[in-house]
Amino acid sequence: MPMRVAIASMFAIGLAAGGAAHAHAATLRGATVIASGTVRLSDLFADLEPGQDRPLGPGPAPGASIQVGGRQLLAIADEYGVDWLDQSPSATATITRAGRVLDQDYFAGLVRQNLPDLGDGPVSIELRDFHPIIVAPDDKKPIVLSDIKWDQRSGWFSATAYRGQPTGDITRDSFLLTGVIHATRRLLVYAHALPAGSVLSASDAQMDDSYAGHITSKAFTNEADIDGMTLTRGVVAGAPILDQDLQRTVLMHKGDPAVITFTAPGVHLTATGRALEDGGAGQYVHILNLSSNMIVTGRVISASEIEVAAGSNPVPSDSNALRRLTSARGRSRADLSLR
């Protein structure tokens, strides 16, 4: 029942007037915050006589306010025998009911409580078309969920939410709660937007401990793995760093001269060579040893150095070997590398 209607009803049924005017003067409260759902006389007037306080009617909804105008205040003071200082028909009193906001975090936690199949692992619960609601601060169970449905494959869920303390308005007392649940993971994301062709360094990445987006290829978790890689497309801040968007930055180009090094316990050998294909840092490529005219496979150390691992088998640089090598360049780097 609205405040004005409730007060008018009290006048109509002739509630007991509090007696004649009291010698003790009360003062008007201009603004009052109440915790309960009932407005009392002391919410409008301070310094009442002992035993003079009494309930007047229902208060506003949690978080809402009502205003009581001067004529109503005069009528209430007269009805209950309140000797009110500075009485005026232009006076107003505002009564606000305290409220607690139930935000997305609250409802996400409630969904998790009601879906034990989610387990204890990290998840992200994203609500769709969500609007916060306000409830009484002392409401220990303000929302109850029912009819919960969850498609584990798509992550989509829905549930009906009911207020624990109904307001009487069916459009506010229940509503449909929907959203998507994603498993989260710890991975590197871009610290800022970058254009295609950028060469990455550690400063371009940051760790996201609870990334919940969709991953389409291998994601990185170690900054050292992306250092020196080149972007094949433009990216935005916060996007995951994926293998499909990176390529090795070419340090050594086909035809470049290079020093071939071989190191073993007690042995360190060097030779002059020429790269037979492009290669990025740490990548294995074929190189022609100009001294022995043999083709070896080594790891790119820098733009001018190839390191040959122990156990690498050189092959003669005859026409057949060179032809096989030429045809192999059309295949992936994995086919050309020693793993």
From TrEMBL:
Q: What protein name applies here?
A: Flagellar basal body P-ring biosynthesis protein FlgA
For whether the record's keyword set contains Signal, the answer is yes
Q: Which organism is it from?
A: Gluconacetobacter sacchari DSM 12717
**Predominant location of this chain?**
periplasm
Identify the residues that the record assigns to the SAF domain, covering every copy.
185-247
Q: Where in the cell is it found?
A: Periplasm
Alphabetically sorted, this entry's keywords are: Cell projection, Cilium, Flagellum, Periplasm, Signal
Q: Which domain of life is it from?
A: Bacteria
The organism that produces this protein has a lineage beginning with: Bacteria, Pseudomonadati, Pseudomonadota, Alphaproteobacteria, Acetobacterales
